[in-house]
Design goal:
InterPro entries: Ric1 (IPR040096), WD40_repeat_dom_sf (IPR036322). The chain is mainly beta. The protein has 1 helix and 10 strands, in the order ββββαββββββ. A 4-stranded antiparallel sheet has the order 1-2-3-4, with no helix packed on it. The chain has a 4-stranded antiparallel sheet with strand order 5-6-7-8, with no helix packed on it. A two-stranded antiparallel sheet has the order 9-10.
């Protein structure tokens, strides 16, 4: 066993998958960081609900992290509300919090249909 220092001053909880060799760190700002625990230790990526329209004020700090039995996904819970299951590659698999309607400027193929709703499958360019 060896010890290491990540330098993540916002850490509030963590969980390790020995199978995947990944350490997940939940932070007080609502972000979940994934680290590869081979030498040298490296940040793989991070996931959060910020990209889905939620701020730290909406969800709070990450309060719990748990791996799925196969270690290919994990669940993160937040202090104020919500639970989300993420794949280790960073895809949101399910969430108890619905996605806020975001500005579709970054998605040029999404157009408003006659009912006033956005339909990503409508043809557009």
């Amino acid at each position: 066993m060896s010890a290491f220092w990540l330098g993540s001053g916002d850490a509030v909880c963590s969980s390790i998958s020995i199978d995947q060799k990944i350490l997940i760190v939940g932070t007080r700002i609502g972000v979940t960081e994934l680290y590869e625990i081979r030498k040298p230790i490296a940040l793989i990526h991070y996931v959060s609900l910020h990209d889905w329209g939620y701020s730290m004020d909406d969800i709070g700090a990450v309060s719990s992290i748990s791996w799925t039995p196969d270690s290919f996904a994990f669940a993160a819970g937040w202090k104020l509300r919500g639970l989300t299951v993420w794949s280790i590659s960073g895809f949101r698999l399910m969430s108890t919090i619905h996605q806020i309607v975001l500005n579709f400027v970054s998605s040029p193929g999404v157009k408003q249909n006659p009912d006033g709703n956005y339909d990503p499958l409508m043809s557009g360019s």
